[in-house]
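Morning run. Coffee first, then this:
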Amino acid sequence: MHPQSTPAPAPEATPGELAEESSAPPLPPRLPGFRGSFGWGLVRALRPRQWVKNVLVLAAPLAAGEIFNAEVMRPTAVAFVLFCLAASAVYLVNDTIDVEEDRRHPRKRFRPIAAGIVPPWLAVVMAAVLFTVALVAAVLLTRPELAFVLASYVVIQLAYCVFLKNQPVIDLAVVASGFLLRGIAGGVAAGLLLSQWFLLVAAFGSLFMVAGKRYSELVLVGDAAATRKTLKEYSASYLRFVWSLSAGVAVTAYSLWAFEMGEIQDGVPWSTISIAPFVMAILRYAVDVDKGAAGAPEEIVLHDRVLLCLGVLWVVTMALGVFDV
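And here it is:
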C-alpha cells in the first residue's frame, strides 16, 4: 500500500504582502435608507452640487451686456447644460481612478464609487455616454467652436485624472483651466468677443480658488496628505503665496477694466463702484481659505451668507455699469 499523501502547506504570505493587505482601506459604512441606495448613488456620482460652477458660462454674456438677449441666452443655456454633462463625466472617471485614495480621505471615502455603491465599470460607461452626448449636442445645437472648448476641457481633465494631477504646479493650472474654459464656453457658444480683461480676471480668479482649495485640503488632511500626492510637494506658505499672487492679479485686472468702463459711462460710474464689493468678496473668501474651510468653492459660496451677499452686490453693480454703456 502506498503511504497516504499529505497536501503541501500553503506558502506563507510575505511581510510585504501582509503590510499591503493590512493597509488596504476598508469600505465605509453605507448610509441608511434612501441615501445609501443604488439609485441615489448614481445621482451623487454625477456630483450635481458642483454644477453650480457651470454658472460661469454666464460670465461672458453678462460682461458683454448681452445677458438678456434671446439670441445669446439660448446657446448660453445649452452650453450650461452640456458643461454639466461633460463635468459629470470627468467626475465619474476621476472617482474611478482615485477610488483607493478616496477611501483613505475622511470625506471622499463616502463618494458612491469609493463606498462601493456604484461599480467602476458602470461609472466608465456612463462617462463615455455623457462625453458623446455633450460633444454631439454642442455641434448640433450651438456652434462647432463650443464642441472644441468642451473637447479641450475633457482632454485636459482626463490627462489630469491619469497623470497630471501628480505634477506640482501643473495640477493647479489644469484645475484652474476648468474654471477658465467654463467662462470661455459661454462667450464661444453665443459668438461673443472675449476681452483681455475678462480672460485675465477669469484665469487668475480661478487660480486663486484652486490654490485656496489645496491649502484647505492641506489643513484638513494634515499628516494624511498622501491622499493627494501633490500635497506632499506643497507647503502652506507656498500655497498662501499662490493664492495671494493670483488674488492680486485678479483684483488689478478687474480694477483696470472697471476704470476703463467708467470713463465711457454717463452718470453714476457703476463699474468703478463694483470694485469695492469685488475686492471685499475676494477678502471674505480669503478668510475661509485661511481657516482651511474652502475645500469646495461652491460650498463656501452657498454656505457663507455674507460672501453670497457680496457676490450678489458685485454682480448687480457690475451689470448696472455694463448696461449703462
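Residues 1-8, 15-22 have pLDDT under 50 and may be disordered. Good start to the day.
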